[in-house]
Amino acid sequence: MDREAIITLAYLVASVLFILGIKGLTHPRSAVRGNLIGALGMLIAVIATLVHQSILEYHWIVIGLIIGTVIGAVLALKVRMTAMPQMVALLNGFGGAASLLVAGAELIRTPPPAFSDVVIATYASGLIGAVTFWGSLLAFAKLEEYKAFRQPIRYPLLQPINAVLGILALVMCAIGISQPESVGLYWAVVFVASVLGVTLVNPIGGADMPVVIALLNSYSGLAAAATGFVLGNAVLIISGSLVGASGVILTNIMCKAMNRSMTNVLFGVLQAEDTSTKQDDVYRNVKGAAAEEIAMLFDTAQRVVIVPGYGMAVAQAQHAVRDLYQLLESRGIEVLFGIHPVAGRMPGHMNVLLAEAEIPYDRLKELDEINSILSETDVAIVLGANDVVNPVAKTDPKSPIAGMPIIEVDKAKTVVVIKRSLSPGFANIPNPLFAADNTLMFFADGKRAVLDLIAAIKES
């Protein structure tokens, strides 16, 4: 078997491992194995590529590998699990940047024939890669809640400006495809696409970040696939296509979970009227409770459902939640976790945090499954969640979240909401659940509240 055949076989093996890795990532129980399988596939692909390209000088590559390995290892060890959404956003952006730089370098090295598939792929890589890079950086800034990016920023003529930028980028791509020797035009496309990436993501609020991250992930895959056509690299085409397709599917799932279209997420912001007066009306009968009072609920409880939200991530309360889970289980109480698809700031955010706290995977239930048993639940604990448990989604067709599937904690016998205040969620609307007859409000920081609750249960 000659070297070319061995390289082709290595690419095939790597591609199969990528597919098996994605399959493993579909369930928390096999996620670690899937991650390792995918990493093995990437290692094989990298080695095969280094051999295949007949590289004459390896010193720059070795330096890059060492620097990248050190940075990756430091990030893996230092980045908190609560900061995973930011990490994912950055990785998406780096993928887009790598694609546009490689495609640009190849265009400089060997300009392809006009109107060829290679030059088309080159400009596609530059366009998509630039949008991905700058859009991901802005998503990172929003997730980090930097002051300048904390709130969605809208300005007059936003959609016409985006349309003009998009059309301008496409026209420049068409000219560049007909004149591949004009390398400067490629970088002009990258610049316009970079501005477009910023203007597209800038108006999007934190509530839509799970969708945005999934979509940017898809973009990074498409950029990589386009670069694969530029280089004639089969494994890059396959892996990029896998990432692109899975990202689109995940984006669609996220949109359905929010009962919103992708265009609404990208080009619209949740709008709500001034709700100060409505809040006074809705929250007239709110009942607060202390840890000791809530602890008594568990004396006769047989099933408890905990619904985590972004507030749990902010408070870093997942380990305290694990301690509460273990305490209740030791007393013979069944404890389950209701996971909403868009809870948190990235797809699977709550799953990641609870997995880090070593809560058994079989205790995590998806929306439909948990809703089917909430009417038979004694106590539902809402920890840092708001819009995903707001019954207005079912009762008010004019609400910004109308039709959004929610976790129906209001069906439980008693609902305990752990929250700092009565402030609204991302949708900026009151939540009648907080004032329901069967709801008790526990006003406190998420972690502190859970720890106080554990202490009170032990004393009761």
In the sheet with the most strands, the strands line up as 3-2-1-4-5-6
Helix coverage percent of residues? 55-70%
Distance between the termini: 74 Å
* Radius of gyration using CA atoms only: 25 Å
Q: Which sequence of SSEs, written as H and E, runs from N to C?
A: HHHHHHHHHHHHEHHEHEHEHEEH
Overall outline:
globular
Helix count equals: 18
Strands, count: 6
In quaternary terms, these chains amount to single chain
Q: Give the averaged pLDDT, no decimals.
A: 90
Q: The CATH topology of the largest domain is what?
A: Rossmann fold
CATH superfamily of the largest domain: TPP-binding domain
Q: Which CATH architecture of the largest domain?
A: 3-Layer(aba) Sandwich
Structural class: alpha/beta
For the biggest sheet, the summary is: 6 strands, parallel
| Low-pLDDT residue spans | 271-277
CATH class call of the largest domain: Alpha Beta
Strand content: 5-15%
**Total individual domains:** 3
Question: What features would you describe in this structure?
Answer:
It is a single chain. The chain has 460 residues and is α/β, with parallel strands linked by helices. The chain has three domains: 1-78; 85-267, no CATH class; 276-459, TPP-binding domain (Rossmann fold, 3-Layer(aba) Sandwich), CATH 3.40.50. It has helices at 3-24, 28-52, 59-78, 84-109, 117-143, 158-178, 183-201, 209-231, 234-258, 262-267, 276-282, 291-295, 310-315, 318-330, 349-356, 367-371, 392-395, 446-459, and strands spanning 303-308, 334-339, 364-366, 379-383, 414-419, 439-443. A six-stranded parallel beta sheet has the order 3-2-1-4-5-6. β4 (379-383), α17 and β5 (414-419) form a beta-alpha-beta unit. α4 runs antiparallel to α5. The longest helix has 27 residues, at 117-143.
